[in-house]
Design brief:
It contains three helices and two strands, in the order H-H-E-E-H. By secondary structure, it is α+β, with helices and mostly antiparallel strands. The protein has one domain. A two-stranded antiparallel sheet has the order 1-2.
């Protein structure tokens, strides 16, 4: 459980840092990607994109 939580936090940090580039290729606009304003700051939680990317990473790990 702790390992999964760490992986999700790292994935969220990566998606937040690369948000503008990832939006150009379509990630960041999936149904579970949340974007809202909190205390004047925009918060972006790419849950759907993280699930999609982890699925592809799992497939890649199974193939290799």
């Amino acid at each position: 459980m702790i390992r999964w939580l760490i992986v999700m936090c790292v994935a969220l940090l990566i998606f937040s840092g690369l948000r503008t580039w990832l939006e150009k290729i379509g990630l960041g606009r999936l149904p579970l990607d949340l974007r809202f304003r909190l205390f004047g700051r925009e918060v972006f939680l790419p849950i759907g994109s993280c699930v999609l990317m982890s699925f592809f990473a799992m497939l890649l790990a199974k193939v290799l």
